[in-house]
Amino acid sequence: MKLNKIALALFAITAAPLAANAGVTISPLLLGYHYSEGADDEQLEVMGATDGNKYYKENGLYTGAALGIELTPSTQFQVEYGVSNTDAVNAAGTVTNDAEQEMISGNFLIGFEEFSGYTDNAFKPYVLVGAGQSKIEVEDAAGNFLTGSKDTIGNLGLGAMYRINDALSLRGEGRAIHNFDNNWWEGMALAGLEVVLGGHLAPTVAVPPMEEPNVMTPPIVVVESDLDSDGDGVPDSIDACPGTPMNVVVDERGCPVPVDITDELKMELRVFFDNDKSAIKNQYKPEIAKVAEKMREYPNSTARVEGHASKTGPSARYNQRLSEARAVAVKSMLTNEFGIAPNRLSTVGYGYDQPIADNNTEEGRAMNRRVYAIITGDKTMTVEQTKDMVVQ
């Protein structure tokens, strides 16, 4: 145990000067479950004790610590020391004594990003490969040494770091341990917290090699400070928007000047009806659809829908209601079939008070049975100002 602590101290002394350029990692406490039952028979063959019995070590709690240094942004080398304190079981399966297993090993933690490329993902899986020494001792209740084994081991495992921030990471790992001297396998599952000193090692950025100038042929220097390739009046050396069209107004940096323009909407709709009817005929639905499309294009536009009747029917009051029904029919189609908000549409009926043709003829009366709508609105657009544009 003394030798193991000296090894850790030596590694700490070696790693400290490198902390300024690479992350020194410390896992102050590693907790795990040490599985050794797979080695029961082999341990019984090897660990014959002074009391005439043969023993093997039971599964138990593993506690350890590790000190490491990053070799690349995703790979590090660690020295780890740990102890498993459990019971010793004899060949008859009786727990009679105490067993302790000390392990010290040097392990490489090789991150998957070493092969796939570095990312900002907090989850960092790795493969562990290493070797070291294991020492098992069995003592009786009085602390007298009964038997033991000091062997070379190899470690192989899979694990992952979860980086909480640039200094702290959570660590979880599953590991297989092979005893080379006695040819048995053990297993371990462990978890812990890793602290990095000096920050993680950052990925290096490749710098292209410098080309030596040809001393025999001096380079030709072309002065382009006065060139204006796009003809906008701004030299290329300070032009932030090269390639500007010739007719566009630019600012002092050579970039187009934005300007707001207002586009006004004004359109009319005429829908004609059969005598004494307020139903819209199919031939007018495409025209109403065009009105709806324009009103969606101009969100602030409104429509005034006027209904009219010919001078037929039983009374002026009847024709008034009929004209109002025709205006409402157009409004309902715009609202129900094309989704125009009702508050953008107003209706009014004029009866037969505003004819546009002679009510004494059939042709004239057909022209007067109508809805007339006026749609108005505007929208503001930001465009690039051109030299032929008059801005008010």
UniProtKB/TrEMBL annotation:
Signal peptide range in chain numbering: 1-22
Record bears the keyword Transit peptide: no
GO molecular function: calcium ion binding
Gene3D superfamilies per record: 2.40.160.20, OmpA-like domain
Record CDD domains: OmpA_C-like
Membrane-crossing segments per the record: none
Domain OmpA-like: 260-379
GO CC annotations on file: membrane
PROSITE patterns reported for this sequence: OMPA_2
Pfam families reported for this sequence: OMP_b-brl, OmpA
Keywords from the UniProt entry: Membrane, Signal
Protein name: OOP family OmpA-OmpF porin
